[in-house]
């Protein structure tokens, strides 16, 4: 989209809330090395699908990345452009209200 000018890192999967072995598939060591090698990084933006597995992954990453003392944020969530309110689920509406501008 050419909207972001920083570094990015592809994690390689998500963590299932039910399957702890998924953690081994993630590229955590590589991510930690990337953060250590780029001291200029001020913020880590977690761009992960808003699913149950995505939420579990986000919570896991927030815990793992906390010692780096960087600002950790998530992409905004809410209603898609061109979306119809009547088709929005309860969680999407809640997220849109919580993150309104």
TrEMBL record:
One of its GO terms (molecular function) is DNA binding. GO terms for biological process: DNA recombination; DNA repair. Pfam families: RecR_C, Toprim_4. Signal peptide: none annotated. The keyword Hydrolase does not apply. Keywords: DNA damage, DNA recombination, DNA repair, Metal-binding, Zinc, Zinc-finger. PROSITE patterns: TOPRIM (PS50880). Residues 1-80 form the Toprim domain. This is Toprim domain-containing protein. It comes from marine sediment metagenome.
């Amino acid at each position: 989209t050419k909207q972001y000018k920083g570094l990015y890192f592809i994690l390689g999967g998500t963590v299932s809330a039910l399957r702890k072995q998924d953690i081994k598939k993630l590229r955590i060591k590589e991510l930690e090395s990337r953060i250590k090698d780029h001291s200029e990084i001020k913020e880590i933006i977690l761009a992960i699908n808003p699913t149950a597995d995505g939420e579990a992954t986000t919570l896991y990453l927030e815990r793992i990345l906390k010692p780096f003392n960087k600002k950790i944020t998530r992409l905004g969530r809410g209603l898609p452009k061109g979306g119809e309110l009547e088709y929005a689920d309860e969680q999407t509406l809640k997220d849109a209200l919580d993150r309104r501008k």
